[in-house]
């Protein structure tokens, strides 16, 4: 049962967008997926409350900011949305559960500076170094051909953490979220460009971690 934690200590970088759409991808593939939310704002849970009953089911993972329990039996995939300022024991508890950590990051200098210590902490984590947890970065609201994308690559150079892909700044995410939907809940022709951008991210998500010899 893969557990994918979506984390960045900075707020407003697209954690909930990444979490809900990833859960939607799993649900549309027929998986029994749980979406957990340990953010006080409970954005992911609020989104689940407006999700249409006709859409592929995504269950709520009953977790809170003060307690992260193990997922219930019968679950095949878990996505955990995390709050801004994630650190200390909450981060440790999330990492104990995680098979993969996705870090959404906007390539502005302010977002990069606010995230650099967190990424270094992840890169130095024993479970990450030994291949027990995979960490990947997703550039949010950015065109891969811009100088901003180049700046993001320069920033993470040396951390040995991959940039999995870039998701463009589009109203598709905003409009779909307002109706409890994801890219995988509507006609492909309406969001083909966005689905194409997701593909390398999904390839990474679907790939089992390669564990190193200890």
TrEMBL record:
Residue ranges annotated for the CobQ/CobB/MinD/ParA nucleotide binding domain, each copy included: 4-182
Q: Which domain of life is it from?
A: Bacteria
Matching CDD domains: ParAB_family (cd02042)
Alphabetized Pfam families for the sequence: CbiA (PF01656)
List where this protein forms a coiled coil. Answer: none
**Known InterPro entries for this protein?**
CobQ/CobB/MinD/ParA_Nub-bd_dom, DNA_Partitioning_ATPase, P-loop_NTPase
What is the recorded name of this protein? ParA family protein
Query: What organism is this sequence from?
Result: Herbaspirillum lusitanum
Lineage of source species? Bacteria, Pseudomonadati, Pseudomonadota, Betaproteobacteria, Burkholderiales
């Amino acid at each position: 049962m893969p557990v994918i934690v979506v984390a960045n200590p900075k707020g407003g970088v697209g954690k909930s967008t990444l979490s809900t759409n990833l859960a939607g991808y799993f649900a549309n593939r027929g998986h029994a997926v749980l979406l957990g939310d340990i953010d006080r704002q409970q954005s992911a849970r609020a989104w689940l409350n407006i999700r249409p009953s006709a859409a592929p089911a995504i269950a709520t993972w009953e977790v809170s900011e003060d307690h992260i329990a193990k997922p219930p039996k019968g679950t095949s995939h878990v996505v955990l949305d995390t709050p801004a300022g994630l650190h200390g024991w909450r981060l440790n508890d999330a990492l104990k559960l995680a098979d993969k950590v996705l870090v959404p990051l906007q390539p502005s200098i302010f977002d990069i500076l606010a995230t650099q210590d967190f990424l270094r902490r992840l890169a130095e984590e024993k479970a990450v170094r030994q291949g027990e947890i995979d960490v990947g970065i997703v550039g949010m609201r950015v065109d891969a051909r811009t100088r901003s994308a180049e700046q993001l690559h320069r920033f993470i150079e040396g951390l040995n953490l991959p940039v999995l892909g870039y998701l463009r700044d589009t109203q598709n995410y905003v409009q779909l979220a307002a109706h409890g939907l994801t890219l995988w809940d509507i006609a492909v022709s309406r969001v083909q460009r966005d689905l194409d951008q997701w593909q390398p991210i999904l390839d990474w998500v679907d790939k089992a971690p390669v564990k190193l010899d200890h």
